[in-house]
Amino acid sequence: MPSHELDNFIICKKCHTLHKKVPLAHDTKAVCRYCDTVIYRNHRDLFNTTLALAITALILLIVSFSFTILTINIKGVNQSLNFASMFIVMFEHHYYFVGIMLGFLVMLFPLIILSSTILLLILMKYRKYPYLVKRLLILIAKLIPWSMIDIFFISILVAMVKLFDFTQIDVDVGFISFIAVLLLDFMIIKRISFNELWINYEEIYRINA
Amino acid sequence: MKRSTESTPNRYPTEKLVRCPICEAVNYDTQSIIRCRRCKELIYKHKQISYHKTLAFLITAAILYIPANVYPILITRQLGTLQENTILGGIIALWEAGSYPVALIILLASVFVPILKFLFISYLLITSKYNMKSSKVDQHKLFYITEAIGSWSMVDVFVVAILSVLIHFSSIQIIPGTGATAFALMVFFTMLSALSFDIRLIKH
Questions:
Q1: Mean pLDDT in order along chain A per 10 residues (209 residues)
Q2: Cβ separation of B169 and A77 shorter than 8 Å?
Q3: Region B80-104: what's the mean pLDDT?
Q4: A95 contacts in B (CB within 8 Å)?
Q5: Which residues 39-68 in chain B show a CB within 8 A of chain A?
Q6: How far apart are CA A153 and CA A171, in angstroms?
Q7: What's the pLDDT at A54?
């Protein structure tokens, strides 16, 4: 079989069963026939909606980075939590490795993923810089397993429950926008498929070349 | 929802095709180095190299799991006295205080998830090494689960970081302990171990 015919196939990410692709109607999805995992979807307007979602997510992510997430009050003394303070306190206690890991996993990687997604979609929309687009696609795929904002959110909730008994906890702007970022991030991850992006990449830049 | 796939013709056996982990393209399995035909990235190196890499990262993580549990992960300094908490100690304290759901979350994330990952990856390595008969589909699913639960163990480290920012008063202070670094390193190495695992080890 010549290698371009391989494009007609797709392998399920969960159980690695080979499937032959079939054309889908708009807004439907194809699932693996063994494990029911979604293999690919057909979105009506993948680029524009994803771009809008990604821009919103990036703005909200910057908001949650710059504002306070939680404030606690013990006997009249306030103490608040924001992303930067966590990083600084870890360095103050000389836990450099944990501090650096926090900085990368919770702040830097999500920021890079979102901004690269935006850049990538804009470049693909205007059919410019194929090489850069390709590098961005590879970068995002490699970084996604290392972005841990969802885990960080669970950690905030666990910490809140731990503190609940002996302090008063006030939720701030950072917390609300962080929830919004998570929801948007979930929607972006759910709708975007690398397979679709790569197919689009090949189509767009082949026409251009 | 639409069921994809007509049944795949027998003349293209799945064993000879691999999925690119980066762009999801289907590639021929050449049994050695594979450069993806679509994204041109080096996606698979020699199987034996990735086998040993996975094993080395797994052993490193398993060794780090010991200090992560023995050393305190969280130190509470209250009016001059220090109280040290290991992971298990923290879980027991939470359980006794009546916060059962949180105790369960931490037990799951910090104790069960790492152990499950060690077990899953060693099982996959052993079955591939000794060519044991077991369902390929189940092994693929096991590996998928291993990758998916990988980052959950970080919950405890993040909680310690959050608490040490919030409880930072003159009378009471929470300081991260040595266990936190060991634990973070352990998670890091288990993730590297899962990422360096070659999916073709399952197939053959």
A1: 76 86 86 85 84 94 92 86 87 89 92 94 90 92 90 91 84 93 89 82 75
A2: yes
A3: 87
A4: 176, 180-181
A5: 39, 41
A6: 13
A7: 94
Whole-complex ipTM: 0.88
Domain ranges (residues) in chain A: 1-42, 45-208
CB < 8 Å to B149, chain A: none
* For A94, nearest residue in chain B (alpha carbons): B176
CB contact under 8 A, A33 and B184: no
Which pLDDT does position B204 carry in this prediction? 65
Mean pLDDT, residues B17-41 taken together = 85
Residue to mutate among A17, A101, A133, with most B CBs inside 10 A, is A101
Q: What does chain A look like in DSSP terms, one character per residue?
A: --GGGGGGEEE-TTT--EEE-----TTEEEE-TTT--EEEEE-SSHHHHHHHHHHHHHHHHHHHHHS--EEEEETTEEEEE-HHHHHHHHHHTT-HHHHHHHIIIIIIHHHHHHHHHHHHHHHHHTT--HHHHHHHHHHHHHHGGG--HHHHHHHHHHHHHHHTTTSEEEE-HHHHHHHHHHHHHHHHHHH--HHHHHHHHHHHHHHH-
Using a CB-CB cut-off of 8 Å, the residues of chain B touching A10 are 4, 24, 26
- What are the structural domains, with CATH classification, of chain B? 13-44 (no CATH), 51-198 (1.20.140)
* The predicted structure's pLDDT at residue B39: 85
